[in-house]
Specification:
mainly alpha; 6 helices; 71% helix
């Protein structure tokens, strides 16, 4: 019974490694898309720091080498993934029993591992081809510039909305105002009254004589000291 449960768990753990219907070309396209997105993000952050924060002039040609270097770095990582997968595939070929974990590959995983290895190899080749394409590099820089400006535009719009906020332009102002007024009545005003009462008693020298001085202030039966 225990072995049956273990075998069932092993099959479930390894099921994710055998995607059905996913073509190699689609997997490679997904890998290239993710790599391009990561490159644009790195370039966007560089633009935000240099152009927006430091006030330097935007020079697309200056960012082209960084775009190339980022793509080549990601290509090297894809090559390393391919090598790791190949090692796992060679070990899995000699194992025919049940696996005991997610990355404990067996002979039945060899086909999928070979597919993943080819995916990493083709992604690496595709990234190196893009790194040699001046047009592709300039497009990445331009996309990064647009992304950086969009982020700045959103921040400016958010700041203006806050600083220029008007009650008549807020659709939920009525509901929020009622909640704020209730909080003011039940919490803020009783707390202020208790604070002023303690100050007055302290000035009159009667703070220790009054029994109510140490009593927690309450509003609607609620101990206000619990809200601090």
């Amino acid at each position: 019974m225990a072995e049956a449960k273990r075998d069932d768990a092993s099959r479930r753990a390894g099921s994710w490694r055998r995607p059905k219907g996913m073509k190699l070309a689609d997997m490679v396209a997904d890998g290239l898309y993710v790599a391009s997105a990561a490159t644009r993000l790195a370039l966007k952050n560089r633009i935000l720091v240099e152009v927006i924060a430091r006030g330097e002039d935007f020079d697309p040609q200056r960012l082209v080498p960084e775009a190339r270097e980022t793509l080549l770095t990601l290509a090297a990582e894809a090559d390393q993934d391919a090598q790791r997968i190949e090692s796992a595939r060679l070990r899995a070929r000699r194992r025919h029993n049940d696996s005991y974990g997610t990355h404990d590959y067996r002979s039945r995983d060899v086909r999928n591992l070979r597919k993943r290895q080819r995916q990493s190899e083709q992604v690496a080749a595709g990234l190196r081809a893009r790194a040699d394409d001046e047009t592709e590099l300039r497009k990445l820089v331009e996309d990064a510039r647009e992304a950086a400006w969009s982020e700045v535009e959103r921040n400016i719009d958010s700041t203006l909305r806050i600083e220029a906020a008007r009650p008549d332009l807020e659709p939920d102002y009525g509901k929020l105002r009622e909640a704020r007024m209730q909080s003011l009545r039940l919490i803020d005003l009783p707390r202020l009254a208790a604070h002023r009462r303690r100050n007055a008693q302290g000035a009159a020298g009667t703070l220790d004589d009054e029994k109510t001085a140490d009593a927690p202030a309450k509003a609607a039966g609620v101990d206000l000291s619990e809200l601090e």
